Amino acid sequence: MAGKPTLPGYTQGTQIWADQDRKPLDEYTSIGKTGFIRKDGMDKVSGTAVYTRDVFLPGMLYGVWLTNPYAHAKITAIDTTDAENYPGVRYVLTYEDPEIKDKLNSGGFLPVWMLGSLGYYSGEPIGAVIVADTEQIAREALRELKVTWEEEDFITDIEEGAQSGAPLAVDGTETNEQMMGPGTPTVSGDPDAAFAAADVIEEWSSHKLPISGAGAEPVSCVAKWDHGTGHLEIWHHTQVPNSHRAKLAAYFGIPRSDVIVHQPYNGHLGGHFQWVMYDCWTMPLLGAMLSRRLGRPVKMMYDRKDDYTASDPSFAHMHAKVGLTNDGKITAVQCENYLSQFGFNSTEHIIENTNISNYSLLAHNINTNICHPGPMRCEQTNNVHFWATVQQHAAAALGMDPTVQALLLDGFDGEDMGTDGAAYKEEHGFPARDSLAECIALGNQEFDWDNKWHEPGAKTLPNGRMHGVGTFWGHSWQDASGDGGVALFFNNDGSVNVMCQYADNGVNQRSTMLQIVLEELGVTWDNIDWLDIGQEQVQFSAGPGSGSQSCCCTGWAFKYAAKNARFAILDFCCHDFEYTTGFGGGDGPRLQAAFFPGLTADDLDLKDNVIFEKANPDNKFTLAEVCVHTTFGAHNAGQSNMGPGVFAWQYVSQPALADSYSEYEHHWLCRNFYYLEVEVDTDTGEVFPTDCTVVYDGGKIITPESFFGQMYGACYMGWGRALVEEYVWDTATGVHLNCNFYDYKVSTIKDLPPAVLHMHGIETGVGFGPYGAVGVGEHTATCMWTCLSPAIYNALGIWIDDYPITPAKVLKALGKA
Amino acid sequence: MTEKRKKSGEISRREFLRDAGLLVGGTAIGSTVLLAACGGGGATETVTKTVTSTVPGGTATVTSTVPGGTATVTTTVPGGTGVQTVTVTKTVEVPSGAGPVGLTEITFTLNGRVYTRLVDDSWDLQYFLHDIMGFIEIKTFCYRGACGSCSVIMNGRPILSCTTLAVNADGAVIETSRGIAMSGHPLVNAYIKNHCMQCGYCTPGFLVTSKALLDRNPNPSEEEIMEALSGNICRCGTYPAHIWAIQEAVAEGGM
Lengths: 817, 255
What we know:
The complex is a heterodimer of chains A (817) and B (255).
Chain A: E1 10-12, H1 13-18, H2 41-46, E2 61-67, E3 73-79, H3 81-85, E4 89-94, E5 104-107, E6 111-113, E7 118-119, E8 125-132, H4 135-142, E9 146-151, H5 158-161, E10 177-178, E11 186-188, H6 191-197, E12 200-208, E13 220-225, E14 232-236, H7 241-252, E15 259-262, H8 278-294, E16 298-301, H9 304-307, E17 310-311, E18 316-324, E19 330-340, H10 348-353, E20 359-366, E21 372-373, H11 381-398, H12 402-409, E22 411-412, E23 415-416, H13 417-427, H14 435-447, H15 449-452, E24 466-475, E25 482-490, E26 496-499, H16 509-521, E27 528-530, H17 550-572, E28 577-579, E29 590-592, E30 604-607, E31 610-613, E32 616-622, H18 623-627, E33 647-654, E34 671-680, E35 687-697, H19 704-723, E36 757-762, H20 779-783, H21 788-796, E37 802-803, H22 807-813
Parallel strand pairs in A: 1-33, 2-16, 12-37, 14-15, 17-21, 19-20, 26-27, 35-36
Antiparallel strand pairs in A: 2-8, 3-7, 3-9, 4-8, 5-6, 10-20, 11-20, 12-18, 13-14, 13-16, 18-19, 22-23, 24-34, 25-26, 25-33, 28-29, 30-31, 31-32, 34-35
Chain B: H1 13-24, H2 32-38, E1 43-52, E2 58-66, E3 69-77, E4 85-94, E5 103-110, E6 113-120, H3 125-132, E7 151-154, E8 157-160, E9 173-175, H4 177-182, H5 186-193, H6 203-216, H7 222-229, H8 239-253
Parallel strand pairs in B: 5-9
Antiparallel strand pairs in B: 1-4, 2-3, 5-6, 7-8, 7-9
């Protein structure tokens, strides 16, 4: 586009989207193929994979936090004498330390201090950090702190928190309502008139309790301040290493060149990009400060209980009303939703997925004294929750088959997918495929929907249980906005390394990205790998969310870096070049004739590590024969077999959705459909899954094993969220009660027998990622759980819109408890 | 390592183990309740403790350890706000022959190599092997025996190393996921091929549990596999892949 920067290796996203550069879906050589032995496989199976928790440095000390035992309290005095004298304790840092006193690390909707004296939720790390020879000593020494607390009023219910006169969750505020949400309704069309004209109006309320952000690996961070070199090194869970690098450098007043941020494997699935997350930003800052003072590395550690201080921002109360026509269309939607602080929005998906043109959608974000948000697979729970209840209640209100009604609603921004969507796809070069229709066609067949769906409460099984089915549908995540960069180079033996710092949080980027490189470059799987050592010291990074944006953003960078490298090596082969022999240049530069004199890069091809002339495949050289002469930047003289080889890179910057800069109208086109079949025991309230079928349009599936792995894996997380996952607070004190994996239940292998899972993928190519792909890692966990409420309604004829739907809630709904 | 035995109502993981583990180990140290159940015996000792409540008033149960014994005391902390500090006194039975917690020399075989090390009697096996010995495949996940990620095979049985004292490994033969991988066990390639890992943090524990299953049952049914793996938690939800991998290892590995 005119006026945009055209730096080599620098690409604006809208240019990429306009140039999909796709092959027919069945003509790829690496993309979509199974059987690549994943590069992290042996590391993770054997256990030699190093996570932050596993980082040990010589002389390392251990830092742990005092935590707030109340829902809302302040520290008025602290006596550290006994703690400082505790054997093995090396340092006690308190909120009164001049370097950090009253210093905000970042401002969210709850303030996040470097080390505050005000506690806004139980378990919050505040007041003091003790550094000792071992974690055990440090935790024992915490008990030697003499802390005087002053309790304050607290609020844990979001809807009560919105009421006038409610206790204020945050000191210094005048109201608990924050402006993260719209604040005023988002209005489109004429909802009042549409409701007046509606044949049917349905109203309901739904609730979702928070779910845990606690991952497998308790959060930790290692900081090493090297007074000799002046370097600060950080090992940390993060998706944004360069942001950490910038923040650390700015905080300590040192150049970024002196800051190295390592990303070990990440066993904590949380987002770790939120500025409101204490552990994300403050942990490395405090660790660095303590390491600088003590002259020794410091590992800052949460234990399992500490790690439960962050929750998914899914605490929501929603009140909704829809207007319908008898033919099944939703003509109006109105809602007033209450979300926990930083609860993201709850109304976007209904806009992004449908042709509904009349709505008034209001969401309140309410401060409460519950734990900070820590998105885990992922932050869209509220958006999904609201859209799910709308489609499910709307279908039920008419007694309509939800798989039929879905096609009546499919669209975007009030436009119809069938008509407007077809025009949009044609205009933007997408295949003329109807994603939702294809999902439903396949899903109905595989799930046997027509035979399983029935009138609510109408089917009792021979075992005495009630049978029910439920569905949800929505758009696939593509997270195509953001930026990312990757470099790759040929070693002198023809092997290839890629350099890109990324967060390995479980979606198999390490192999998937290399499949993209293989597709574009033509080398073999055993001839390519990541360069791990030292990669943290380069700026090539998987962008702001190498989890969410791994496929659709960073994938572009890999694709075009590989294309750049391919051109570079083929172009090198077509030119004479100089080289030297021996140390110090030996007998001086020699001129070597081109490998393919008189040809251009376009005349050549590269497959299976061999470069050959397209018109004469016998005219060929292996990559090893060529690369022994390449040096940094082709065509230059160098000492053969000693240079780093041909180097290429790509940086991709893609604007967010339909942004004003590009004026590129970005819509979500890939869909997915979820089916759940359950049996409900009306004597015990237990719910048993018997079929969980997911049809997911991946656009283009890059690594099938990972694609389906993310789907069935997320089903377990979704099933836990539907049935058992909930944070529990003591109502009298506001203290968080279930901070471990005994009291906070998650799905195990027996809770959702693998035999009931049926995962299906389709490929329409209508995604905005490379090759028309979309993301898959977060979606199923965020959507699958919403099928439970309609499934129970179908079984019992009773709505239980209160997640998690525990046996006690089922029995209560049945009038048995 | 020197420790002060002065604690609040909360007990640490290792303190928990020190009581429970030693009782299991058949030694004479245990809580008064447990000692009573075991017959107790020995002298008595008066224990005085300063108790700091971490809840705003109410009843606190305090476990206090002294050389040779453990006292469990229930006391009422005054109501009101702020941290409450009270002093409780308890006379406990101290079994004869019990000595102070200290260092013990143990010899064990791990992945085919013999080690002799001094271990603190309070160390759990997971901490000792992971933090002290550097066998990082034994992961810290739940801290207290809920997840299976710290599993190792000890004397032929899968055990949770986080709820096993290091001193109990004296004379033991231990196998970790690293050893299983180094041995070329067919499970390893099957695990990789079937993408049994996502974030990978829990994967070594699953491999150990699966290996132990095949050691005792070379051809398990799907139900038996699920039963064996039901104590392992995977937050990513890789569960089905483990079944496929085990079945494939059985089919291809000539188990």
